[in-house]
């Protein structure tokens, strides 16, 4: 092994401009380095340095310094004089603040601060006008300086910071939206104090009367029970300072609870309201607090409020000590009030104010023009506006079109109204009153006829539900398609294909599916010769680990996974009920999902069951942990026949624990049910993804599918890909090969999920001048090819020729060396996917086109092998798991995005489409697969 002194001596002897001392366990920089003051690049990463020596200030020629992965607690003062520094890596240290002098390093182009302890960035950060990359992910930033907007061309990474809600919403839309928002704040910012007040509890306990009394409204005896949600403003004063609260009054009907959870957010003050006359058990006080924690997490505060306490009925008090023990700081207090007499109301109002004052982000900056527009829209009283009308009013308040659209999206993310700019139909309307929409949805959920036919909602019946003259609340028919789309977006319903019985356009309301399990022959008789694998998703409270059954989970899964339903083309073939469903993914196999308590069991039969099994369990986990902030999912594998209690499947083993135990050299693990020690490999068999790596899998897939490609493509084009399972009676090896290719692609896409917000992930890079790098040049030209993330084919091939999506750009050798594993991994994933891409019905590629794709692929792989110094990194990529390695190089992809954006901001015409909670970049010919047209609603005459 080469020692530290050897490296220093070698650099001195060769008069090298670069010194690499990475990963050597250094606690201080050796004095011998001092003589190398002419260095332009110094790599000190992954050591144990707590500081850097003062003499480093003499390295005035230094252009690149990598001090990432050390123990630095501050930015070393010795860097202050390095005015030539262009790249500064300080990630994964313990730095808690940035000195203002860092803004004087005017040559900085890349500043990496990821994974530190920063709570603020200096206000002068915008002075670094040459900056192209600012990485500040994984810090403790609640806000960012206005001057960040001055970094016009910089990529800004703020992932995993506790940003204020409006900053988070702007950032998640795009970096440009964040810049626009910051410019508005700097020009027209206003400090405001605002929070959300949510009243929950069983029906009839007095929530509406309580909110009315808090608002000083006149007492109304026998008040009508709230149906759905009502939202009313409330202003409280704390120490002479006003806080504006939006009071959300939720109806207590059980059928509406899964829908109401959509509006449970943090930070907020919650009032859990109960009636002492009924007792806390019948009021489900603990249930409501637990539901709040599961849905919104622990960043909320709860006041438990007993109503109808005319004589302070403490003999019926709730067990305050037990609730505090269970929920800790979530519980802010207990109150006994009477809305009719005003008993305890002043104390409660004061307590609400004190509690709201302590919420994170209750005080924050907001553009004055935005606030004025928002207030004007709400004061106008209209429950909705067409987008042109909204845009016109925004213009009257001084907001140009771009800012108006940005505000519409950000305010929607904050829950002020509902607007989705990327959905055809929904982009034409702004729903200003979410409670108005919630009431419309509740009319569907409460409809006896829809319940009688197990959730089959005929669109022609909508006027009878939403425009009934006997109801005070009526809805205009032109909004019905948008309402249906919103129900789809909220996982309440999905459109079903046209039926042969003449009922017309319809949707399935998942909450109303039958409780009984239907005939299961389509599952029991399917694929008896195929492999079968099973996993269990166990849902637990993330705070205490207790088993928890999320309210409405199966209904949401029925909607979210309906594209895999057996009935996606023929509704009559669907198999779903309140306890489960059967899914089918063509050559990837068939699955049975069932739910019992807090356990969702996923069983798959397929030639290669691991792919679909892990895709579905990951979908369940992602959905639960995103929607219910206070819940977590453990992936469990059931025991086998050798279990000691002779009940196969009764014992469950945490997959994460099994893998960790095996990595520590253990071969067996005890069953928690019967104590029998079982072999880990046996338990995980069929439940782990294959560790197929490198070019072997790509070549194997091509060998299996290649000879049959023309036959398969012809059959798919004529019969439709949805019947691919039966096309040519696909051989076991072909199905397995296709599924393994899909698995690798899914891993790649998920590994670079965060980067997809600002640019595509499916990119290949071919080195055009490897001889330059052999000659020691620091830069070289590469050809970059963009690929469609739907078809997995190059843009220029999908265009039928031309140069879209092809670029020749110059990159540094440093970038290329670091990017080698990612380039190789991406290239091999694409190579393994090519056969599957040619099977998409919309694609009828000639042999010449296929040859062009193959040549593009091979040029990438061949050129990497010709670059000196890359082979070891390329080999490492071939022998490791793609998801992990690619994710580590996400910053490299962001750098490439910046290069490409300078040449072509449109990324070759690729369009970003939203797929649930992630993005895809697809060729325009496939956009309609992800942006469905509005639902059809037949006109019905004479309905009043």
UniProtKB/TrEMBL annotation:
Domain of life according to the entry: Bacteria
Keywords: ATP-binding, GTP-binding, Kinase, Leucine-rich repeat, Nucleotide-binding, Repeat, Serine/threonine-protein kinase, Transferase
Catalyzed reactions per annotation: L-threonyl-[protein] + ATP = O-phospho-L-threonyl-[protein] + ADP + H(+); L-seryl-[protein] + ATP = O-phospho-L-seryl-[protein] + ADP + H(+)
Keyword ATP-binding tagged: yes
Molecular-function GO terms, alphabetical: ATP binding; protein serine/threonine kinase activity
A cellular component term, taken from the record's GO annotations: cytoplasm
Keyword Nucleotide-binding in annotation: yes
Domain Roc positions: 188-359
EC number: 2.7.11.1
Name of this chain's protein: non-specific serine/threonine protein kinase
Organism of this sequence: Virgisporangium aurantiacum
């Amino acid at each position: 092994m080469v020692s530290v002194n050897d490296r220093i001596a070698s650099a001195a002897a060769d008069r090298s401009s670069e010194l690499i001392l990475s990963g050597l366990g250094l606690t201080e920089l050796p004095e011998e380095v001092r003589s190398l003051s002419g260095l332009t690049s110094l790599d000190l990463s992954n050591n144990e340095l707590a500081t850097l020596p003062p003499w480093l200030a003499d390295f005035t020629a230094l252009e690149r310094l990598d001090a990432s992965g050390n123990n630095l607690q501050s930015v070393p003062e010795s860097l202050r004089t390095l005015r030539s520094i262009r790249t500064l890596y300080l990630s994964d240290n313990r730095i808690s603040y940035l000195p203002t002098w860092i803004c004087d390093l005017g040559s900085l182009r890349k500043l990496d601060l990821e994974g530190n302890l920063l709570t603020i960035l200096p206000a002068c950060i915008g002075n670094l006008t040459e900056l192209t990359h600012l990485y500040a992910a994984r810090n403790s930033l609640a806000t960012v300086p206005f001057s960040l907007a001055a970094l016009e061309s910089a990529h800004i990474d703020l992932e995993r910071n506790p940003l204020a809600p409006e900053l988070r919403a702007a950032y998640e839309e795009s970096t440009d939206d964040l810049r626009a928002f910051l410019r508005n704040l700097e020009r027209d910012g206003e400090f405001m104090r605002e929070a959300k007040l949510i009243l929950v509890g069983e029906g009839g306990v007095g929530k509406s009367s309580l909110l009315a009394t808090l608002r000083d409204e006149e007492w109304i005896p026998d008040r009508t029970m709230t149906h759905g949600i009502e939202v009313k403003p409330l202003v409280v004063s704390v120490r002479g300072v006003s806080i504006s609260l939006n009071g959300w009054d939720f109806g207590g009907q059980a059928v509406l609870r899964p829908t109401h959870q959509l509006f449970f957010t943090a930070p907020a003050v919650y009032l859990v309201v109960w009636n002492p006359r009924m007792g806390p058990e019948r009021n489900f006080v603990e249930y409501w607090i637990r539901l709040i924690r599961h849905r919104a997490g622990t960043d909320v505060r709860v006041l438990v409020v007993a109503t109808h306490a005319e004589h302070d009925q403490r003999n019926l008090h709730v067990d305050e000590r037990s609730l505090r023990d269970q929920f800790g700081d979530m519980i802010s207090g207990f109150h006994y009030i009477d809305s009719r007499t005003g008993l305890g109301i002043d104390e409660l109002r004061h307590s609400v104010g004190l509690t709201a004052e302590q919420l994170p982000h209750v005080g924050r900056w907001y553009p004055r023009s935005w606030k004025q527009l928002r207030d004007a829209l709400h004061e106008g009283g209209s429950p909705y506006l067409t987008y042109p009308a909204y845009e016109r009013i925004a213009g009257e308040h001084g907001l140009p079109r771009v800012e108006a659209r940005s505000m519409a999206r950000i305010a929607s993310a904050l829950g002020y109204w509902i607007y989705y700019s990327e959905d055809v139909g929904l982009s034409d309307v702004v729903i200003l009153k979410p409670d108005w929409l919630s009431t419309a949805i509740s009319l569907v959920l409460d409809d006896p006829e829809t319940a009688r036919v197990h959730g089959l909602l005929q669109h022609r019946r909508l006027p009878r539900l939403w425009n009934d003259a006997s109801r005070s609340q009526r809805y205009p028919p032109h909004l019905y398609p948008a309402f249906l789309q919103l129900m789809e977006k909220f996982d309440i319903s999905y459109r079903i294909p046209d039926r042969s019985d003449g009922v017309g356009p319809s949707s399935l309301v998942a909450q109303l599916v039958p409780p009984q399990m239907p005939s299961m022959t389509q599952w029991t008789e399917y694929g008896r010769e195929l492999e079968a694998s099973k996993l269990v998703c166990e849902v637990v409270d993330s705070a205490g680990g207790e088993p928890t059954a999320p309210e409405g989970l199966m209904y949401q899964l029925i909607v979210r996974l309906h594209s895999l339903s057996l009935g996606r083309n023929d509704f009559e073939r669907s198999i779903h009920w309140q306890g489960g469903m059967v899914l089918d993914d063509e050559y990837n196999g068939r699955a049975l999902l069932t739910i019992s308590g807090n356990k969702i069991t996923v069983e798959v039969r397929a030639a290669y069951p691991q792919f679909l099994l892990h895709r579905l369990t990951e979908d369940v986990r992602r959905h639960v942990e995103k929607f219910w902030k206070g819940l977590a999912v453990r992936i469990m594998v059931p025991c086998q026949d050798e279990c000691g209690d002779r009940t196969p499947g009764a014992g469950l083993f945490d997959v994460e624990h099994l893998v960790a135990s095996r990595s520590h050299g253990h071969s067996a693990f005890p069953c928690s049910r019967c104590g029998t020690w079982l072999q880990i490999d046996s338990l995980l068999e069929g439940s782990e993804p294959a560790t197929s790596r490198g070019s072997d899998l790509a070549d194997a897939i091509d060998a299996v599918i290649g000879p049959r490609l023309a036959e398969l493509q012809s059959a798919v084009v004529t019969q439709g890909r949805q019947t691919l399972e039966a096309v040519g009676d696909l051989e076991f090896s072909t199905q397995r090969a296709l599924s393994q290719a899909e698995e690798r692609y899914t891993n790649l896409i998920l590994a670079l999920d965060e980067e997809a917000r600002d640019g595509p992930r499916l990119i290949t890079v071919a080195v055009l001048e490897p001889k330059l790098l052999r000659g020691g040049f620091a830069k070289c030209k590469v050809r970059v090819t963009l690929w469609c993330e739907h078809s997995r084919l190059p843009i220029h091939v999908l265009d039928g020729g031309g140069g879209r999506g092809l670029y020749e750009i110059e990159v540094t050798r440093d970038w290329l060396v670091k990017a080698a594993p990612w380039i190789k991994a991406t290239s091999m994933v694409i190579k393994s996917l090519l056969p599957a891409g040619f099977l998409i019905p919309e694609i009828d590629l000639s042999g010449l086109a296929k040859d062009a794709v193959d040549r593009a692929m091979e040029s990438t792989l061949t050129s990497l092998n010709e670059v000196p110094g890359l082979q070891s990194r390329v080999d490492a990529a071939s022998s490791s798991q793609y998801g992990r390695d690619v994710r580590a190089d996400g910053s490299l992809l962001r750098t490439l995005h910046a290069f490409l954006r300078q040449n072509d901001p449109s990324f070759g015409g690729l369009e970003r489409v939203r797929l649930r909670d992630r993005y895809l970049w697809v060729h325009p010919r496939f956009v309609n697969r992800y942006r469905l047209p509005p639902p059809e609603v037949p006109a019905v005459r004479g309905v009043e």
